[in-house]
Amino acid sequence: MKHSEVEIAKKVLMQCREECNDTAFNTTSDDPQQIYEDNAKTIAEIDAVIEELNRHLSYLEENDND
Q1: Res 3: pLDDT
Q2: Residue 35: how many CA atoms within 13 Å on its side-chain side?
Q3: How far apart are CA 3 and CA 5, in angstroms?
Q4: pLDDT of the residue at 32
């Protein structure tokens, strides 16, 4: 994966994370606690992928690949 592709993937994931967070706080669900818990799990999963992308970016920068 190229550096630019990793950056784009990170931006998309950050947008997904933001939307997921907004959903948790703006829900009108009958069970807002469940929505909050589900979204917290999703956000944690997104954060793990972002962390992996950051490691990949570091690798690419250390090896001067684009």
Answers
A1: 83
A2: 14
A3: 5
A4: 78
Distance, in Å, from the CA atom of 66 to the CA atom of 17, rounded to the nearest integer, reads: 26
Residues 39, 20 contacting (CB under 8 angstroms) = yes
The pLDDT tens digits along the chain (66 residues) read 788 898 999 999 999 998 887 876 777 778 878 888 888 899 999 999 999 999 999 998 888 754
Distance from CA of residue 51 to its chain's centroid? 9
Kindly write down the DSSP assignment for every residue of 26-59, as one continuous string. Answer: S---S-HHHHHHHHHHHHHHHHHHHHHHHHHHHH
Q: How many CB atoms lie within 10 A of CB 29?
A: 11
Instruction: Confirm if 58 and 22 have CB atoms less than 8 A apart.
Output: no
Distance in angstroms (rounded) separating the CA atoms of residues 59 and 61: 5
